[in-house]
Design a protein that fits this description.
Oligomer: single chain
Number of helices: 18
CATH topology of the largest domain: Immunoglobulin-like
Distance between the termini: 42 Å
Helix content: 40-55%
Strand content: 5-15%
CATH superfamily of the largest domain: Immunoglobulins
């Protein structure tokens, strides 16, 4: 049970970044989601979209739009009377408590390239305003006492003093923002429109553009994130991976000075594995024997580097069956990130004294229906552990290989004492042969014996002509 929890911890701690979480160029194009609109007021609805990435200290370009969903003409107001602002919640990377802000007022439709502001929108009409950079807009701390319409919009009341511009206030992390538009219409009721909430992720700054002091302050804060708990380490890892090669020397320095410990150090090792760089590979080779989980992190994530020297070290360490965890994680790493575990690791896993490692071998072999993998699963049908035999049978059943050696291996597995795997073995036989004779471990003993004997009798007659 402890072993399973340990593997699960490594898996979660190391897979939370995603199976392909290595820095590299390219990526599949994704379809753009449909624009989302806020609630309808007086037939009007408001929407806002993010244009481009948002990095700390950089731009935050938003594209607002207004539409009339009603049947009647939607009256607006003179452009000079309209007021817009943002409300947002910011959650720093690695933090647990969000901070709330609202922006200074802006004039909607004032950005360069905006269309002419109309006095009204026809039914079904839409007004797409030009993109506007909110990075330079000031932010004020939100408090419950602020009444936006009487204090912020009309300017008749006091509001908290601005804490700075958006690009300077918001660091690396996530923000949920809402675009607000107030239309004070003459001879008609005013309208306050709200967009749907928009979630944005704020990435790290371009380190090459920072001053030496600003760069040091940012890096020191990032490295400190690896010195805390697993949550903070994971957050620091995400930032480091986005920075890529530019941060490698700082990460290596933190490793050497042991600035991070425990789970944070494991995340630091993961970051080095996720940034594909010769400098990282050289450090990971030295970390393979480090206790406390770091060596196991290297065994699992190291294959991402695709470095021949590091591969050789991981295979050599993983082939030592005295460390069952190292063997299992090395196999999983090659299997997940490279598509196939090396034969030497699989052989070590098959010969391991730990049935949990042998089960991992089954998982590795089941990913590909190559002849070599099929033969390996047939061999594991003889395993003394029922769970290993069950997993091997399920893998063979899914592969669809109907060779006599496969069917014969499954028939032989039925002769091993114990009910633990027979149900899965019979299910696999049914899939491969079309002959349905399932095994119910809860059935009376005589019926179970008849099921096994029936399969053996059938195979005795069928194997001569089996192809």
């Amino acid at each position: 049970m402890r072993f399973a929890r340990y593997i699960a911890t490594i898996w979660c701690c190391l897979l939370a970044i995603g199976l392909g979480g290595i820095v590299r160029a390219g990526g599949e194009a994704t379809s753009r989601p449909a624009r989302r609109w806020g609630p309808v007021k007086a037939g009007l609805a408001l929407s806002v979209e993010l244009t481009g990435a948002v990095d700390q200290g950089g731009k935050c370009v938003l594209a607002p739009a207004l539409r009339n969903t009603g049947r009647e003409v939607g009256r607006l107001c003179p452009q000079a009377d309209a007021v817009a602002w943002l409300i947002l919640k910011f959650l720093p990377s690695g933090g647990t408590a969000g901070k709330y802000y609202f922006s200074s007022r802006v004039l909607p439709g004032s950005a360069k390239g905006s269309p002419i502001w109309p006095r009204s929108l026809a039914s079904g009409g839409r007004l797409d305003l030009a993109r506007m950079d909110f990075g330079g807009v000031r932010l004020h701390p939100y408090s419950k006492g602020v009444k936006f319409l009487s204090h912020h919009v009309t300017g008749k009341g006091s509001i908290p003093e601005a804490v700075g511009k958006l690009r300077d206030v918001l660091g690396v992390g996530k923000a949920n923002l809402q675009y607000m538009l107030y239309l004070p219409r003459k001879d008609d009721s005013p309208v306050l429109l709200k967009s749907d909430f928009l979630s944005i992720e704020i990435g790290p700054p371009d380190l090459t553009k920072l001053s030496l002091s600003a760069r040091k302050a940012f890096v020191d804060k990032l490295i400190a994130g690896f010195g805390g708990d697993a949550f903070g380490g994971h957050a620091a890892h995400r930032v480091a991976v986005r920075l890529g090669a530019e941060i490698v020397d700082d990460l290596i320095g933190a490793m050497k000075t042991r600035a991070a410990k425990g789970a944070g150090r494991m995340w630091l090792a993961t970051a080095l594995a996720d940034i594909r760089d010769k400098r990282c590979a050289a450090v990971l080779i030295k970390l393979i024997d480090e206790p406390g989980g770091v060596g196991h992190v290297v065994a699992y994530h190291g294959p991402k580097q695709r470095n021949a020297e590091l591969d050789a070290v991981i295979i050599a360490r993983g082939s030592k069956t005295t460390d069952a965890r190292m063997t299992a994680l090395a196999m999983l790493g090659f299997m997940v990130f490279r598509g196939q575990a090396p034969r030497k690791l699989l052989d070590a896993g098959i010969n391991s004294n730990d049935p949990r490692v042998r089960s991992t071998v089954v998982a590795a072999l089941s990913r590909s229906a190559s002849l070599e993998n099929v033969n390996g699963l047939v061999l594991l049908l003889k395993d003394t552990e029922a769970r290993v035999r069950s997993a091997a049978a399920r893998g063979l059943g899914a592969m669809g290989n109907r060779d006599a050696s496969v069917v014969g291996g499954l028939i032989a597995a039925l002769g091993i004492e114990g009910d633990g795997a027979r149900s899965d073995v019979c299910d696999a036989l049914g899939k491969l042969t079309g002959r349905q004779s399932p095994y119910d471990k809860n059935a009376p003993s005589d019926k179970k014996r008849k099921i096994v004997a029936g399969w053996v009798k059938w195979w005795t007659a069928a194997r001569k002509n089996h192809r």
